[in-house]
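Final report, closing paragraph on structural work. Over the funding period we assembled a curated collection of sequence-structure pairs, and we close with a single example.
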Amino acid sequence: MKNSPAFFSPLQNYIDEIKQSYDSISNERSNAIKDLATHIDHSIQSGGNVKLNFICTHNSRRSHLGQIWSATAAAYHGIQNILTYSGGTETTAFNPRAVDAIKRAGFHIENPGGNNPIYKVYMGQNIPPMECFSKIYNDKFNPSKNFIAVMTCSDADKNCPIIPGAILRFPLRYKDPKEADNTPMEQERYDERCRQIATEMFYLMSIIKNKK
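Its predicted structure, as stored:
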């Protein structure tokens, strides 16, 4: 795409593939994503930055994938005033299986080690990295007000009926790949969820781009 960032070649190839699979999104989810796009576009038109905080219970899998892929899709489409974050209702760590899934998608990862590493996730050689680690949704690293809370799992949606500071709470739930941990289907499930979230975030940002 013209004027898009210079992503790593494997990541660019992955993006080229998922852009051809928007028809795999169900009508129900497509309508939900269009609704979210409308809310984001209204916030953009009001001026300033739009903050998206992806929230699940442990901030270990789905919320990180939402944060990473929405940031990547916004960068790809040249939407500069969207900022992405993630958080949970409790702190654990960015799960290594999910980290491996984004590696296979083409991102480069720096892992400093520790119980809750602050991973650096790179889209391209000369693009500043995202910092990804597990945290509570209202951690100081995240916005405290005027953000859109995107609820990526039913447990977080149920356990947090109110998200202080959010201007909108939007459910966009995904099946937890954790259910396949330590089974022969583990890698396939993580890759499947990574690709689904990537596809939907690129679809979301393409709608927003076309509204400009």
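The first strand starts at residue 50 and ends at 56. The chain has a mean pLDDT of 93. We thank the funder for supporting this effort.
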